[in-house]
Amino acid sequence: MDKIKFIVGITGGSGVGKTTLIDGLKNEFEGKVSTFSLDNYYLSKDQQAKDENGVVNFDLPSALDIDRMRADLIELKAGNPIKQKIYQFNNPSNEDSFLKIEPANLLIVEGLFVMHYEFIKDLLDYSVYLSVDRKLQLERRLLRDVQERNYSEKDVMYQWENHVVPSYENFVKPYKEEADLIITNNDKFDENIHILTSVIHDKIV
What we know:
The chain is of the alpha/beta class. The protein has helices at about 20-30, 65-75, 120, 135-145, 155-170, 190-205; strands at about 5-10, 35, 80-85, 100, 105-110, 125-130, 180-185. The strands form two sheets. A five-stranded parallel β-sheet has the order 2-5-1-6-7, with helices on one face. It has a two-stranded antiparallel sheet with strand order 3-4.
């Protein structure tokens, strides 16, 4: 079983390209990467806060099961595999799917609130903040949530204006200047992507 040598946190707003970056790192460091996604720790809908219009707000740090997340991260860092229940958002048909995560040389922890939760931030060896043009960010969010998560465009726009943007301003953006590296991802990842791969290479290869 591989030992975790380096833990990288990847954060940024919705639609900035976290998944695309991780896929690229998996290709670059084939067989040496495991991914811990905060998206799989959402509490059930009946446990979520609602806004003034009675609409569930998933874009709050309180929306995630922090205790289970902490326990799983500790277990993984100790060198033990964990099993995550895959959160299906608006696709309940596969709600019992599970993902087994094995420790690997590089552990990537990704999600909106990676740097907001102190216990995660303290665990990181290196942090990456992804930035993107706001208009492009919305286009990506619309494409993903309508096609992959079965939301209507009206619902996506409501969430964007009332939940996503306020959450970003309050719980994500304040940590931008604290990150070890900022990567801009408009048409493609900027040159700082090479800094990231170089840092990882030095630590795990």
